[in-house]
Design goal:
145 residues, mainly alpha, two-stranded parallel ribbon, 5% strand
Length: 145
Amino acid sequence: MDEKARGFVRGGGRLIMSPADAIYLDMKFDASSPLGLTWARGVTSAERAYAWDPAAVIEGVTDADILGVEAPMWTETVRTLDDIDALAFPRIGAAAEAAWSPAAGPDGERTWESFRTRVGALAPLWARSGIRFTALPGIDWARED
């Protein structure tokens, strides 16, 4: 499929990137997650969803060749709206930042440490909004008292 994508780009097309092992929201967060699947090379942690670079998925495809990013969620294991929230949040934020920001790296503005602090601060807003997010280890989930 990589060669077909490169051929499409050579012909003037632009791609929507959606690698299952990085951005599919229906994948398990970790091995013990009660929701989600593992078919795309195992679990997809929030850190994995954050760290990928759309321009590094297919050799020869650059940022200029990418129209956008898609973060799909297949729902064969989803039974409730809370299940959707639990699978999507906070990975949907990681997907958005991966799509709209420069590549992650220790010297850049986009780092996992910065993201986990910022996404942790969203917990009170999500809770007030009724979003049943997955609280991930290693993130300081701010709580309102």
